C-alpha cells in the first residue's frame, strides 16, 4: 500500500512542478489522508524538494480506523505548544531551498496564510487549487472495496430497522438507533448525520430528525451512510407505515423511482455530469414537479460524503470509469411529505456490466 501513496504524491508533484512550483503544502484533512494514509488531528503534509514530511501537532492516533501514516513519510511531531503545523511546514520548505510553495487557498484561513508568509517571506505562495480533489475523483479498487463494505453495513443496519416496530417512535430515536447499528456492524461511524423524516417531513433533503412520532399512513424516508476505513457511502429509501399506500403515494413513489432509474442508467464513462442530472430531472419536470426538485441529482463520494463530481444542471465535465457517485432524486410536497430514493454506484463501462450498484436494499414501496 505504501507504493499507492507514493504514486499519489508523485502525481501531485508532477502537477505543481509543471506549474513552476517547487513544493506543496496540503492542509485539508481528507487530502492529507489521501496522500499520507492518515490525517491525525491538525496534521499537514509537505511535499518538498528533498523529502515529504507529515507534520503533526501530537503523536498519531493508534485507532485502527484512523489509519497509520505511510512509512515512507518522515513524521515530524511538533513539541507541545510549538505552534501551527502549516507554519512549521512552510519553514521546512524554505529550509529545503524552495523558492515557491503551492498551498490550498480554499482551505487555509486568512490568518494562517499570513502567518506562513511571515515565517517564510522569501517563499512565493501559489494556489494549489483543487488539484488533490481532482486526483481523488477516480478511485482504485482498494478504495472501492472500502465503499462496498460501507454500503453492506448501511444496508444491514437499515434492513434490521425495517424489521422492528416503528409506529409511535420519534424520528430522533430512529436516527440514533440506525447510527448505533452502523457501529455495531463494523463502521467507523455514520458517514453524515442520519436523516429520518416522517409524514410531512418525508422526502426533504437534509432533514434533521425531530421529536415527531411515526404515525399510520406516513411516508417514512431514511437517508444514512457508513464510514469504513475513512470512506463514506450513502443510501436513501422511502416506505409507507402500517397500511396500504394511498393512490397519491404510489403515484409519487413510482415517479421518483422512474427518475432514479433514468439517472442510474445514464451512468457510463464519457457521460456528461449535467446529462445524468437531466435524465433524472426530465422525468420529474414532465410530471409538473420542477419547483419541488433539489438542486442536484447526485454527487461523488469517497473520503468525504459530498465530493466531486457534482451531478447538477450546470456541472461541467464527464464521468470516468471507477468514479463512485450517488443518484438521489426526490420530491417534497410541503405539508404532505414526499419521496427520496438514493443509491451509491460505481461508474463502470458496459463491457464490465455497466454501473455497479453498492447499496442493494430493496426499492419496492414497502408498507411497514
UniProtKB/TrEMBL annotation:
One Pfam family this sequence matches: Peptidase_M24
Domain Creatinase N-terminal: 8-138
Domain Peptidase M24: 146-348
Domain of life: Bacteria
Region (Disordered) residue spans: 190-211
InterPro entries: Creatin/AminoP/Spt16_N (IPR029149), Creatinase/aminopeptidase-like (IPR036005), Creatinase_N (IPR000587), Pept_M24 (IPR000994), Peptidase_M24B (IPR050659)
PANTHER family found in the cross-reference section: AMINOPEPTIDASE, CYTOPLASMIC PEPTIDASE PEPQ-RELATED
Name of the molecule in the record: Peptidase
Organism: Streptomyces canarius
Amino acid at each position: 500500500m505504501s507504493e499507492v501513496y507514493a504514486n499519489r504524491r508523485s502525481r501531485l508533484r508532477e502537477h505543481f512542478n509543471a506549474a513552476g512550483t517547487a513544493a506543496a503544502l496540503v492542509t485539508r484533512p481528507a487530502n492529507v489522508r489521501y496522500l499520507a494514509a492518515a490525517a491525525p488531528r491538525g496534521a499537514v503534509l509537505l511535499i518538498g524538494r528533498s523529502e515529504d514530511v507529515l507534520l503533526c501537532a501530537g503523536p498519531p492516533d493508534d485507532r485502527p480506523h484512523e489509519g497509520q501514516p505511510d512509512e515512507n513519510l518522515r513524521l515530524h511531531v511538533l513539541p507541545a505548544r510549538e505552534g501551527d503545523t502549516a507554519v512549521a511546514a512552510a519553514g521546512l520548505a524554505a529550509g529545503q531551498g524552495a523558492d515557491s510553495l503551492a498551498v490550498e487557498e480554499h482551505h487555509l484561513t486568512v490568518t494562517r496564510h499570513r502567518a506562513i508568509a511571515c515565517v517564510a517571506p522569501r517563499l512565493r505562495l501559489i494556489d494549489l487549487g483543487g488539484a488533490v480533489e481532482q486526483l481523488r475523483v477516480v478511485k482504485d479498487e482498494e478504495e472501492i472495496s472500502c465503499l462496498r463494505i460501507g454500503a453492506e453495513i448501511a444496508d444491514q443496519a437499515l434492513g434490521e430497522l425495517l424489521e422492528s416496530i416503528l409506529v409511535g417512535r420519534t424520528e430522533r430515536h430512529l436516527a440514533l438507533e440506525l447510527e448505533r447499528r452502523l457501529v455495531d456492524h463494523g463502521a467507523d461511524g455514520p458517514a453524515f448525520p442520519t436523516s429520518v423524516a416522517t409524514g410531512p417531513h418525508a422526502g426533504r433533503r437534509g432533514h434533521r430528525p425531530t421529536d415527531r412520532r411515526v404515525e399510520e399512513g406516513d411516508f417514512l424516508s431514511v437517508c444514512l451512510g457508513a464510514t469504513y476505513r475513512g470512506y463514506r457511502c450513502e443510501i436513501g429509501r422511502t416506505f409507507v407505515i402500517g397500511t396500504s399506500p394511498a393512490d397519491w403515494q404510489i403515484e409519487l413513489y413510482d415517479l421518483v423511482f422512474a427518475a432514479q432509474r433514468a439517472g442510474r442508467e445514464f451512468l457510463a464513462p464519457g457521460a456528461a455530469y449535467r446529462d445524468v442530472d437531466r435524465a433524472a430531472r426530465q422525468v420529474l419536470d414532465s410530471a409538473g414537479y420542477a419547483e419541488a426538485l433539489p438542486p442536484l441529482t447526485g454527487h461523488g463520494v469517497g473520503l468525504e460524503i459530498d465530493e466531486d463530481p457534482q451531478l447538477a444542471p450546470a456541472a461541467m465535465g464527464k464521468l470516468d470509469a471507477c468514479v463512485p457517485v450517488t443518484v438521489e432524486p426526490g420530491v417534497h410536497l410541503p405539508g404532505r411529505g414526499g419521496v427520496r430514493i438514493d443509491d451509491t454506484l460505481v461508474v463502470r463501462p458496459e463491457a464490465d456490466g455497466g454501473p455497479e450498484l453498492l447499496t442493494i436494499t430493496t426499492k419496492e414501496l414497502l408498507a411497514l
